Amino acid sequence: MAWIYLLLAIIFEIIFALGASASQGFTKLKASLITLVGIVGGIYFISLALKTLDVSVGYPIWTGVGAVGTVIFGALIFKEKITSAKVVCFLAIIGGVIGLKSLAGV
């Protein structure tokens, strides 16, 4: 169940980041409310995930996968560019996540 909570935390983390960008400094009400829901949901679900997962595994996966998801959805929603440098960084993050997941049982 911890991994499901972590996945939900990641989804809310992405919603938070995209909402924060769209809120334009909390000047847009709807985007600001989405941002608040994202941050509350993210923190709630990461706290549930960390009841079982080590913080040294769960937190970096939450932030890393959330960052990759934010870049991907930022490109889709806000038409931000995905450069080759960003792709290299994605791969590094994903490699780190795979490494941490493989160490979760150690």
From TrEMBL:
It is a multi-pass membrane protein. Signal peptide: none annotated. It is found in: Cell membrane. It comes from the Bacteria. One of its GO terms (cellular component) is plasma membrane. Keywords: Cell membrane, Membrane, Transmembrane, Transmembrane helix, Transport. GO terms for molecular function: transmembrane transporter activity. The chain crosses the membrane at residues 6-26, 33-53, 59-78, 85-104. InterPro entries: EmrE-like, Small_drug/metabolite_transptr, Small_multidrug_res. Belongs to the drug/metabolite transporter (DMT) superfamily. Small multidrug resistance (SMR) (TC 2.A.7.1) family. PANTHER family: GUANIDINIUM EXPORTER, SMR FAMILY PROTON-DEPENDENT DRUG EFFLUX TRANSPORTER SUGE. This is Transporter.
